Amino acid sequence: MNPIVFVFLRVTLWTFLFLMCVTPPTRAEKPPPFDLAQDRPLAGTAYVTSWFGGVIAVADLASGAVKRTIPVGIHNHNVALRPDQKQAWVTNNNAGTVSVIDTETNAVIQTLPTGGGPRHTYFSPDGKEAYVTNEFDDRVEVFDTESFESLRTVKVGHMPHFALVSGDKVFVTNFGGGDVTVFSRSKRKTLATVPVGAGPLGAGATKDGKRIYIACHNANHVAAIDGQTHKVIARITTDAGPVQVTVTPDQVHAYVANDGAGTVQKIDLETNTIVKTVPIAPDAGSHGVGFAGGGRYLLITNTGASTVSVIDTERDEVVKTIPVPKAPEGIAIRR
After folding, report:
1. 317-323: strand order across its sheet
2. 16-25, 112-121, 204-213, 214-223 — which is least confidently predicted?
3. Which listed residue, of 9, 39, 279, 301, carries a Cα 20 to 30 Å from 244's Cα?
4. What are the DSSP calls for 281-326, one per residue?
C-alpha cells in the first residue's frame, strides 16, 4: 500500500474513534406534555360532596376551579344526577335528609326527610323515581322526583349502602350483611339475596344488565354477579379497600377506587382481571367515581387529600388535580 494512503487512512480512523468517544449520543426527543385543550377538552360541571364541610362544591372542569358552594345537610355523602341532569340529589347522612338541587340555578329546591343514615340515591331509567338507601333502618325509600312524595319503602339487608337500578331490578349492597338484595320494581318483592363478600359498598353494571359489579370493601375484591341468575361468577382481587366501581361507557372496562390503598384499578370485563393500577397517594382515600368527556376522563374524589383527580382513560394517568372542600366523597358530572 502507498505509504501516504496508509497514513491518511490511519488518521481518519483515529479521528472517527475520537469523535465517537467525545460526542454525546443523540437523545430521542421526549413526547410533548399532555395537553387537555389540544387532545380533547375537559368540560362540564362537577358536583362534589364535602363530608365535613356541609356543602356541595360546584367545580368548572375546564378551569379546574370551584365556582361556588351550595349549603346542604350534615355529613353529605353522595350526590347523583337525575337522568335529564336537571336535578342533583344529595344524601345527608347524619341529617336524615336529601337535598334536591336545581342544576340550572344551583340552589336547593327541596329538603326531603327520609330514614336514618341516607347514603346513596339511584334513579329509574326514566328519571321518575329515586331510590334512597337508609343504612340505619335497613330499607330503601322510593320518591317521586317531580312531586317529591315518598311512594313506598322496601326492606332490605343490614346497613344498605348503594342501590343500583338495572331495568326492573334494584340491586342493593348491604354493608353489614356482606350481601346484595335484589328486588323487583314492578312486583315490589325480593327476588334474591346474593352473598358477595365482606363490606359491599358501591356497584356498577353493564348497560344490558347482564353483569353487576360490587366493590366489597372489607374483602378487597370486586364481585361480578350474573344479572339474570343472581349468581356470583367471579371475584376480582383488588388493592385494599375498594369503595366504588363503575363501568366505562364503551362497556369494555370497569374502574374501581380503593380508599385503603389510594389507588384506582382498571378491570378488563372480558377476562375479569386487573390490567392497570393508577396510583393516587397512599393517604388519598380515593372514593367516588364519575366520567366526563364521553368516558375519556375518569374523575376520582380523594377524601383524605380533599382533591379530585382527573385520569385520562387512554393513558391511565392522572392529568389534572382539582382542590375541593374538605373530605369529598361523592361526585356527579353534568355535561
Report:
1. 286-292, 297-302, 307-312, 317-323
2. 16-25
3. 39
4. -TT--EEEEEEEGGGTEEEEEETTTTEEEEEETTTTEEEEEEE-SS
DSSP label at residue 250: T
Which is it for the CA torsion 324, 330, 334, 335, positive or negative?
Answer: positive
- Name which of 138, 147, 64, 139 is nearest 112 in CA terms: 147
Q: What is the pLDDT of residue 39?
A: 63
Asked whether the beta carbons of 54 and 72 are under 8 A apart, the reply is yes
Q: What is the pLDDT of residues 146-170, one digit of tens each?
A: 999 999 999 999 999 999 999 999 9
* Phi, psi of 37, rounded to the nearest 5 degrees: -70, -40
Q: Tell me: the pLDDT tens digits for 65-81?
A: 999 999 999 999 999 99
Q: Among all chains, which residue has been given the C-alpha cell 374524589?
A: 301
**Dihedral sign computed on CA atoms, order 170, 252, 84, 50:** positive
At residue 40, the pLDDT reads: 73
Helix (H, G, I), strand (E, B) or coil at 219: coil
Residue 262: Cβ-neighbour burial (10 angstroms; 0-12, 13-18, 19+):
buried
Query: Contact 95/108 with Cβ under 8 angstroms?
Result: no
